[in-house]
Amino acid sequence: MNNSPPSRNEITASLSGILQSRRAHVYSGMLLAVILSFFAYAHFSKFQETGEWALLLVVFSETLTAGFFIFRSNPKSISLAPFDWLVAIGGSFAPMFLRPATWGIFPAADIAIALGTMLQIVGLLSLNRSFAIVAARREIKTAWMYRVVRHPLYASYFLIFGGYVLVHTTASNLIVYAVTLGFLYMRIFSEEKHLALDPAYRAYMLEVRYRLVPLIF
């Protein structure tokens, strides 16, 4: 009988298998749905009071993201780096702490929410089932929005949440927005580090030079 402890490679393979399993897929989807329900309730209640249509757009945006997450395809590989998981979870769930307010520094910024939501829809349709939260390698998408920038979804989040804070300006929302931006910024680099393990993605990075905004970044 071999009583030697499992090797690092065996532990990594086992953990990777668990994270890619159907059970992990279902449980993570259920967790996201529970968190989203609190977020949606707070915003829908405020919509009933004010009739502010942008509140529904924000709920729609997060619900759409959750839907694509639940129906995502199985990855070829998934990052096991703790930092990648930290920034992925932080960037995904930090916006759930945004809350509607009675005052905003620039109420007309609800246009940014609408534009960001439209950009997000096109980005999600471009990405389709290759959507992920934690850095993972799936089918590389290079069509539609991904021919313009490498991270169109994150560009849409900057618009949506930026507009949200301008319409619903509170100290807590500003903090949440700053934390979200920080996580998203780190998330971009952590994802690209993992995706660049694929030669096809490295070629894509050379073809599409900008991450968020053409000619700028």
Characterise this structure.
This protein is mostly helical. The protein has one domain: Four Helix Bundle (Hemerythrin (Met), subunit A) (Up-down Bundle). The protein is 64% helix and 2% strand. Strands 1-2 form a two-stranded antiparallel ribbon. Helix 2 (22-50) runs antiparallel to helix 3 (53-70), helix 3 packs parallel to helix 5 (110-127) and helix 5 (110-127) runs antiparallel to helix 6. The termini are far apart. The model has no long low-confidence stretch (mean pLDDT 86).
- Cα(first) to Cα(last) distance is 57 Å
Tell me the strand order in the biggest sheet. 1-2
In one word, what is the shape? Answer: globular
**H/E element string?**
HHHEHHEHHH
Kindly state the percentage of residues in helix. 55-70%
Relative strand content: under 5%
The description of the largest β-sheet is: 2 strands, antiparallel
The number of helical segments is 8
Average predicted confidence as pLDDT: 86
Assign the CATH class: Mainly Alpha
